[in-house]
Specification:
With about 325 residues, this protein is mainly β. The chain contains three helices and 38 strands.
Length: about 325
């Protein structure tokens, strides 16, 4: 009799867990007062978390939430976050949208301190992850692909690390001002691969096969140690007062690196097999410094404006044949 009662209680507990949103309550083992068993804490006391067991669901209370199995949605947004201070762990699993769906994850209203990590978001009719209203927030190890809209959007002061955006209809990864995007990949997206607003950094990322620029940044941004290849427009597109340092840009249909503003530094990059290796717009581009770059196999190596850019000496052809260069200029650019 006790055995049947225990089984019934177990089934009831499992049913409660499988609802759309349930507390991950695990009580501690019973024991007499003062015993080791009585002093043990439950899992929920050690790390309070809530299970998301079905879609759609709206999170309205701060806390930690996680998946226990892949989830599919056919109506509206999959997970809506409508409060601050939320951690969403996809737990290595997927959120999948079908006909009738909107965004995989949507942050409603201006929110702060949102963390989303560790999973896959795919096939949504809107964006994969629309956290454009989430400021001071983080995305970690999230892969988004084949969504009709943008792959990832996040707000100001964001940290995006280890994420991938592939074959989305809009931009792959898009972040607001003062963002850092590190160790991310964006390939075959319908807009820009990675797009950030002013005062942001893109470091150790790759962007290839995107329909616009591979990497596009606003003013006062840094792009460093990145790879931008085979994009339909430019490999790296930057506005004013940026640092474009030690990147590789190759086989882009238009320009390897393009500046549309003033006061930027383009230093130590390798641009190969592009339309133009490094191009600075005549309209608004001036006072840029271009030094120590190598350009090979481009239709045109360097194209700068005539109103005050500072282009280091370009060594080309016979000047770089043999074992010795004909200059000791440490700031020289190369073209071959």
């Amino acid at each position: 009799m006790n055995r049947h009662a225990n089984l019934t209680a177990g089934y009831l507990a499992l049913a409660l867990l499988c609802g759309p949103l349930a507390n991950a309550q695990i009580t501690g083992p019973p024991g007499p007062p003062g015993s080791d068993e009585a002093r043990m804490k439950s899992l929920n006391q050690v790390e309070p978390r809530h299970i998301i067991g079905g879609l759609p669901v709206t999170i309205v209370e701060p806390g930690a939430y996680y998946l226990i199995h892949p989830l599919v949605c056919t109506d509206g947004n999959g997970i809506t976050i409508a409060c601050d201070d939320v951690e969403l762990d996809l737990n290595g699993l997927s959120l999948e949208g079908q006909a009738g769906s909107s965004n995989g994850v949507f942050v409603a209203g201006t929110r702060h301190n949102i963390t989303i990590r560790n999973g896959t978001i795919r096939y949504w009719r809107g964006a994969g992850l629309d956290a454009s209203n989430a400021n001071e927030s983080r995305l970690e190890c999230v892969t988004v692909y084949t969504n009709n809209g943008a792959g990832i959007m996040i707000g100001e002061n964001a940290l995006v690390t280890g994420c991938g955006a592939f074959k989305n209809g809009g931009n792959g990864i898009q972040a607001g001002t003062d963002a850092t995007v590190r160790d991310c990949k964006a390939r075959d997206n319908g807009g820009n691969g990675i797009l950030v607003s002013a005062r942001s950094k893109i470091i150790d990322c790759s962007a290839s096969g995107n329909s616009h620029a591979g990497i596009a940044v606003d003013s006062y941004c840094t792009v460093r140690e990145c790879l931008a290849t085979q994009n339909v427009q430019d490999g790296i597109l930057a506005m004013s007062k940026c640092r474009i340092i030690n990147n590789d840009a190759g086989e882009n249909s238009q320009n390897g690196i393009r500046l549309q503003g003033s006061g930027s530094r383009v230093d130590g990059n390798n641009v190969t097999d592009n339309g133009t290796g490094i191009f600075i717009d005549d309209n608004g581009g001036f006072g840029n410094l271009i030094v120590r770059n190598t350009a090979s196999g481009n239709t045109n190596g360097y194209a700068t404006s005539t109103i005050g850019d500072f282009l280091g000496q370009v060594l080309a052809g016979p000047e770089i044949q043999g074992n010795e260069f004909s200059t000791t200029d440490p700031w020289a650019n190369f073209e071959f």
